[in-house]
Amino acid sequence: MAKLTPGKYKLALIDLVMPGKNGLELMKELLEQDPDIFCLIMTGYPTVDSAYKSMIEGGSDYIIKPFQLMELLNTLGKHI
Fold first, then answer.
1. What is the domain extent for residue 49?
2. What's the pLDDT at 70?
3. Residue 33: CATH number of its domain
4. pLDDT of 4 strictly over 80
């Protein structure tokens, strides 16, 4: 968050499970500072609840780990 300058970044790749705060908390903070940033939530622990929460809280998309590079590029290509 300390390096975020609104409008400088177009994309945030956010892991759902991180030490300290979860990805949804980080995404919320990012979107408060820059509502136009594309937030892609990544997780190795997918649940319907986490996918739903990430979308209603402003996430641009949700991808399940492990993923292939082409899957990531296709997901990003749909939005950017």
1. 28-75
2. 96
3. 3.40.50.2300
4. yes
pLDDT above 90: residue 2: no
Q: Does a structural domain hold residue 64?
A: yes
- 5-10 own/partner pairs: CB under 8 Å, 24+ apart: 6/33, 6/34, 7/34, 7/36, 9/34, 9/37, 10/36, 10/37, 10/38, 10/80
> What is d(CA 67, CA 41) in angstroms, rounded to the nearest whole number?
12
Task: Domain count for the chain, please give it.
Answer: 1
Q: pLDDT tens-digit profile of 14-59? A: 999 999 999 999 999 999 999 999 999 999 999 999 999 999 999 9
Burial 48-73 (b: 16+ CB within 10 A, else e): eebbebbeeeebbbbbeeeeeeeeee
- Residue 32 to residues 5, 23, 70, 78: CA-CA distances in angstroms? 12, 14, 30, 23
